[in-house]
């Protein structure tokens, strides 16, 4: 049944739907494995309306470029980016992390010479996202993983021991993929400054959650440009910002850092000849959708979203404990819960049974991982818990 749009011919819709009906629908609230969620309706409308805007060619789209600039300023104000800072809307956290490390690598090369790249190293916590492994692999640079402490945060002493002349960049995470832990970024920033090393903060997930902690009555966590040693930061509006995919943002503390990744394209209009991004063509629709949604929701609107999600996370964490699951981090630092199953159960069996009941969760080693995003409401979690209880009963 073509219920979505009268403009799509029925036969095309039917053909597509045969395949697409297999997909999960965020709105059903049963996606607990992803840091993406259903975009806000206004963001979808804005995205659709301005879908042809190409930020790769600001001479054709100066208006879209101006909106990107304003959207970066909104995020910059939220994340304490200095006036001389800048940034770009990219495709997501992976591209942002890769681009930041590319810029850091080129700065290192400029300062220390090409030879120094041979034994160069990037330092990052063991909990870092795979995109940093990809960046190191692409650039042929060794990625040294620093152990994490009992709270799954980068061990500062171990980091200090590894810093050397070979260090191209340090990556710290504000909201790890597995457990949502936040590295001790203020201390890491001090080390980065002391040794004059590029510090990149991957706040793909935490960047649109942590700035609202004070407003929801939680203790403020330092992680952004308020910390002097931070050179660049990733934040993903297509995760907690409720913007359609693709929407990742990379912020630089100072626009002079762009020189490290500057390329000249003579065939484009005057406004567009210098490029600082991996891709040439970039959608402007993401920046427009983010800017419009921010105007609509404002700071307070995001506070409500964060508050509801954190309350739901707490609700689920308490219920996991009631069912004798052990929380890896108690309380969960953000919207992600990692648990060990009670000893009498096999966690793989619980995981498989949940998927069989169409509850998407993750299993990493022996940790069952659940992500609470805005599309998942309390009523969904109540259903999840009743399914989980039935599974536990049947496994005993
Ligand atoms: C901490 C972190 N960084 C980066 C990424 C990569 O983001 P993307 O999938 O948008 O490329 C993720 C994805 O979940 C993430 O959790």
Q: What do you see in this structure?
A:
The chain has 396 residues and is of the alpha/beta class. The chain has two domains: 129 residues, Aspartate Aminotransferase, domain 1 (Alpha-Beta Complex); 251 residues, Aspartate Aminotransferase, domain 2 (3-Layer(aba) Sandwich), CATH 3.40.640. Helix content is 38%, strand content 14%. The chain has ten helices and 13 strands. The strands form three sheets. A seven-stranded mixed β-sheet has the order 1-7-6-5-4-2-3, sandwiched between helices. Strand 12 and strand 13 form a beta hairpin. Helix 3 runs parallel beside helix 8 and helix 9 packs across helix 10. The longest helix is centred in the C-terminal third of the chain and has 38 residues. It is globular. The protein starts with 9 loop residues before the first helix and ends with a helix. Pyridoxal-5'-phosphate (PLP) binds next to helix 4.
């Amino acid at each position: 049944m073509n219920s979505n749009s009268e403009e799509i011919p029925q036969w095309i819709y039917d053909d597509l739907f045969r395949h697409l009906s297999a997909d999960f629908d965020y709105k059903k609230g049963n996606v607990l494995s992803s840091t993406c969620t259903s975009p806000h309706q206004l963001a979808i409308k804005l995205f659709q309306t301005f879908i042809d805007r190409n930020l790769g060619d600001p001479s054709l789209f100066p208006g879209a470029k101006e909106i990107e600039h304003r959207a970066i300023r909104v995020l910059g104000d939220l994340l304490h980016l200095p006036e001389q800072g800048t940034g770009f809307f990219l495709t997501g956290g992976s591209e942002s992390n890769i681009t930041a490390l590319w810029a850091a690598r080129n700065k290192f090369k400029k300062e220390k010479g090409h030879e120094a790249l041979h034994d160069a190293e990037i330092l990052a916590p063991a909990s870092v996202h795979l995109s940093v492994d990809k960046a190191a692999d692409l650039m042929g640079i060794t990625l040294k993983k620093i152990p994490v402490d009992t709270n799954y945060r980068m061990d500062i002493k171990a980091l200090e021991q590894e810093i050397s002349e070979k260090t191209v960049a340090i990556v710290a995470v504000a909201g790890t993929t597995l457990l949502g832990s936040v590295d001790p970024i203020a201390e890491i920033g001090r080390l980065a400054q002391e040794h004059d090393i590029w510090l990149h903060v991957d706040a793909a997930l935490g960047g649109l959650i942590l700035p609202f902690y004070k407003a929801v009555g939680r203790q403020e966590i330092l992680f952004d440009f308020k910390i002097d040693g931070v050179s660049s930061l990733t934040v993903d509006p297509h995760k907690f910002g409720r913007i359609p995919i693709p929407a990742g943002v990379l912020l630089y503390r100072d626009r002079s850092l762009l020189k490290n990744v500057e390329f000249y394209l003579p065939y484009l209009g005057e406004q567009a000849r210098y490029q600082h991004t991996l891709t040439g063509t970039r959608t402007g629709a993401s920046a427009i959708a983010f800017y419009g949604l921010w105007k609509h929701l404002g700071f307070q609107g995001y506070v409500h979203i964060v508050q509801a999600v954190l309350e739901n996370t707490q609700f689920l964490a308490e219920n996991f404990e009631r069912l004798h699951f052990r929380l890896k981090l108690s309380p969960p630092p953000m919207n992600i819960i990692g648990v060990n199953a009670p000893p009498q159960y096999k966690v793989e069996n619980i995981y498989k049974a949940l998927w069989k009941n169409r509850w998407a969760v993750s299993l990493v080693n022996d940790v069952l991982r659940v992500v609470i995003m805005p599309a998942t409401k309390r009523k969904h979690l109540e259903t999840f818990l009743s399914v989980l209880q039935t599974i536990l009963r049947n496994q005993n």
